[in-house]
Amino acid sequence: MTIEIRALREGELDATDRVYRLAFGTLLGLPDPTRYRGDAELIRNRVRAYPDGAFVAVSGGEILGVSLANNLGSLGVLGPVAVHPKHWHGGIARRLLEPTVEVFSRWRNRMVGLFTFPDAGHLRLYQGFGFWPRYLVPVMTKPVAPATDAHEDADGDAVAGDATARQALAAECHALAATIYPGLDLRREIEMIEASERGGVVVVRDGATLAGFAICHCGKGSEGGTQTGYLKFALVRSGAEAPRYFSRLLAAAESFARRRGAAQLMAGVSAGRHRAHRQLVEMGFRTQLQGVAMHRPWDEAYDRPEIYALDDWR
After folding, report:
1. Which pLDDT does position 166 carry in this prediction?
2. Are residues 17 and 105 in the same domain?
3. pTM higher than 0.85, yes or no?
4. Does 275 lie in the same domain as 156?
5. 23-51, pLDDT tens digit by residue?
6. Domain span at 225
7. How far apart, in whole angstroms, are the C-alpha atoms of residue 293 and residue 133?
8. Shared-domain flag, residues 58 and 15
9. How many CA atoms lie within 13 A of 51 on its CB side?
10. Which residues contact residue 150 at a Cβ distance below 8 angstroms, ignoring those fewer than 6 apart?
């Protein structure tokens, strides 16, 4: 069988999405693997955001696998990487990784990270490209509480406004992100969620100063789907007030998800950010699945106990 590794083409999104869902749904043992993540749309959103980071394996016009690179400034994120179950253990994933890893060199990311399941095969695959396991990453969920007066007191909200206001907010978020990892750039992620209207940016302030923000996907076609308020990235300012800012931000995100009709709030957190992880547990979040973060080089990035940041590299 002749297999070609090349850039993904726009007309191949549906077929690529099917392979992605089938691969992960099969891996997780779902009764219908093609229903993995329901009506959430990950492949389309990632390709739209970073079109020069999408690669597929093709044979005879059939999509056999996909690998995506995501560019967050100084941080590159690899994934998802998926191969049709019929072709597992055939070396396709390794071949897909070759051009994907080259993209990070072109983007000049300071560090590249990924989320994978901690079995020997996955670890060995990525170790072959210089990635090494760092910390466990629980992906956690919490039921969205019914609306009450107390719940509606959350003092953050999704930001609306004209293009100038949105650009100003993106600049504030960019400056805050740089405090935990120089060059970390979420502006493209913010632009994409605002343009799609499949979520929003929730913020909390201390006076006029931005204290924290969360990029929330929610709704059909988002990365969260109809039932989930998905915190793709969230961060609060470090310091003595960080736990209070963190609580306010999560309450505001839950209020946002409630208004969108979501049943649960979902977030990933590196166990290296111990205080944030512990506070999630204390607030009622429970682990839905658990993976491991792999870094290249083996740098801590912002995985430090005092950093209150949430992200999900799946």
Report:
1. 85
2. yes
3. yes
4. yes
5. 999 999 999 999 999 999 999 999 999 99
6. 140-311
7. 6
8. yes
9. 7
10. none
